[in-house]
Amino acid sequence: MSNRSLRRVAMTSAGALALLLLAGFLAPRWLVSLATMALANGLVSMGIVVMMRSGVVPFGQGLVFAAGGYAAALAFNKLGVTDVLALSAFGGVAAFLLAAPFAPLLARYRGIFFAMLTLALSMVLYGVLVKTEALGGSDGFNVSRPSLFGQRAVDGGTPLLLWCVTATITCVLAALVRLYCDSARGLLSLAVRENELRVEYLGMSTANLVAWNYALAAFLGGVGGALGVLALGHIDPSFSYWTTSGEFVFVAILAGHHSVIAVLTASFLLELVRSFSSAYFPNTWQLVLGLFLLLVIRFLPDGLGSLSDRLRPLRRAAIRRDMT
Question: For the chain, what percent of residues have pLDDT higher than 70?
């Protein structure tokens, strides 16, 4: 990757972070809390998008989401680790270590078999968590206010602190994912999706590539789970339930695989639509979400990220008109 591309990604990430931090100070408290969860969930969906680029869709990312969340919560309550950055890293590493042994096995499958195997792993973890009283059983357990560099926020300032940390971590990881997608391995992922056999002829192991993409997605999901637990202040087995995994896939399909920013935007839109539809249509909010997804698939079959590709010819035409 050229230095120009690196600078562009770094500048875009820095600009996005500045806008997010400014928005956090100006937005109402309820919107800040909602956006914090949206970014945390968006990291999980970002991992799914990485997998989608290699032609597979995991339906069980609740596995790594719950693993990261429980790891961070246990480190907080049992080990006394309260720093939000340390807890986020702890969640990501725990999810990576849990997913790593399954990666070589899952990488051998494609299509519905890959999706169902990942879903089965997630539901196995759900069953274990529900039956384990030491982890709170079906009720889970609470997590108190985290700190940053040994300092806790003043009363009422924890949501803003978590927003700033979550936005920073998300922008850094989004930039790294963008760089990975533009690297040789990231571009080979697209080739695997189109024609695995030709990639094998080039001397690249497609199974190895899919396995590493799954491990990368697990780390992102673990960080998202840790941040989500700290934002909610509670953890329970529903983090690993199939409906939670389905929401992550929903966001990934809504965003498409063209843009990292589109994933975070789609996650925020999902939280907004779910929040308002459950408030105004409490008995039919799932129907509203379904209609929303159908409209996007109908008019943007490649996801929200494809908007930039559609608008690029229009921008070029406008530039040519200005030059003439």
Answer: 90
Tokens of 149: 């560099």
Between 3-26 and 29-52, two packed helices, what is the crossing angle to 10 degrees?
150
Cβ–Cβ < 8 Å for 64, 195: no
Closest CA to 129 of 74, 85, 57: 74
pLDDT in tens, 192-227: 887 787 878 877 888 888 899 999 999 999 999 999
Low pLDDT (below 50) residues in the chain: 314-316, 318-319, 323
Which is it for the CA torsion 196, 180, 251, 124, positive or negative?
A: positive
Q: What is the rounded CA–CA span in Å between residue 233 and residue 73? A: 9
Tabulate helix, strand, coil % of the chain (nearest 5).
80, 5, 20
Q: How far is CA 264 from CA 20, 39, 44, 259, in A?
A: 12, 6, 10, 9
Q: What is the amino acid identity at position 236?
A: D
Determine contact, residues 186/53, Cβ cutoff 8 Å. yes
Q: Which residues contact 34 (CB under 8 A, 6 or more apart)?
A: 271, 272, 275
The DSSP H or E segment spanning 75 is helix 62-78
The per-residue pLDDT for 227 is 92
Rounded Cα gap, residues 102 and 91, in angstroms: 18
What is the CB neighbour count within 10 angstroms for residue 138? 13
Q: Which two tokens stand for residue 194?
A: 């189109």
Helix (H), strand (E), coil (C) string for 296-318: HHHHCCCCCCHHHHHHHHHHHHH
